[in-house]
Design a protein that fits this description.
Elements: H1 4-18, E1 25-28, E2 43-49, E3 52-57, E4 61-66, E5 72-77, E6 90-95, E7 99-104, E8 108-113, H2 118-121, H3 135-143, H4 150-155, H5 165-175, H6 188-205, E9 239-242, E10 251-254
Helix pairs in contact: 3-6
Length: 280
């Protein structure tokens, strides 16, 4: 699942393969960009911003993409067989003399003027893996709505950018509270260490092929995807429920013994808390 660390990895691969090279092929397969042609332009850099990718191109242009749940950018040597999915899932192709980047299942693809990038990423909070990271501002953003469940606040990219469902569940486990605990009820000492803990997790995983929050080989995550297997700490079966307003699937995992706070009763329907859908 693409989160801040995997988007950082994608940006690094794209930058290493494309930056400083002239595009010899450009194919943007979305209706609004069908006539756009970037061939002959040099790729300047590829920069991650939270879960967004900004590919800056000569002439003051930026190709903006977002992976959401299952989008991916794959890079292939010229002549290498593409293997990211069927052809009908390809949304973008950027080729140079020796490499081709192929964007599969990209739900968001825009071409905009580079000075206008704030239009698509200006709403984001401090980026956990970016140069703008500000732990104090991130914590202030999270605490601004004290009644909001912690899990929802962590996913809101306006508070801090880069956390998705996996890190939401893992952070709440490491803090010892459920994702349904109101942010304002989080003990002050745990709230104070939350931003640094989140940053440490993403930084530790941005260069790893397999994400790990436990430090245990073969047992990579404490809770996410592990229901109903036993908790790695106490042996209680891990539980899973949906969280959010219902606009998207938000599977949320927790240990009912190790994590204090409110949680859905066993067998209860998914949580539906109506609020504006947070931007990514």
């Amino acid at each position: 699942m693409p989160e801040g660390d995997t988007v950082w990895q994608a940006a690094s691969r794209l930058h290493d393969s494309l930056a400083g090279k002239v595009l010899t092929r450009s194919d943007l397969r979305v209706p609004k960009l069908a006539t756009a042609d970037l061939t002959g332009r040099t790729v300047l850099d590829v920069t991650p911003r939270g879960k967004h990718l900004l590919t800056r191109i000569e002439g003051g242009l930026t190709l903006h993409s977002h992976l959401r749940m299952d989008g991916a950018w794959k890079v292939f040597a010229n002549g290498q067989r593409w293997s990211g999915g069927p052809a009908h899932q390809i949304r973008a192709i950027l080729g140079t003399h020796d490499r081709t980047a192929v964007g599969y299942r990209l739900p968001v693809l825009d071409l905009l003027r580079t000075p206008d990038e704030q239009r698509v990423v200006g709403h984001l909070g401090p980026d956990l893996l970016g140069p703008d990271w500000d732990p104090g501002q991130a914590l202030a953003n999270l605490l601004a709505d004290p009644a909001r469940p912690l899990g929802e606040a962590l996913l809101d990219q306006r508070n801090l950018a880069g956390i998705g469902n996996v890190y939401k569940s893992e952070l709440c486990f490491l803090l010892g509270v459920t994702p349904w605990l109101p942010v304002g009820a989080l003990p002050a000492d745990r709230a104070a260490k939350l931003p640094a803990l989140a940053k440490r997790l993403l930084e530790a995983n941005r260069d790893r092929p397999v994400r790990s929050t436990t430090g245990r080989r073969g047992q990579d995550l404490f809770t996410y995807g592990r229901a109903p297997r036993p908790c790695l700490r106490c042996g209680t079966p891990i539980r899973v429920a949906d969280q959010g307003d219902g606009s998207r699937e938000r599977p949320t995992y927790w240990c009912p013994t190790c994590q204090a706070g409110p949680a859905p009763a066993p067998g209860s329907p998914p949580t539906r808390r109506i609020r504006p859908r947070p931007p990514n």
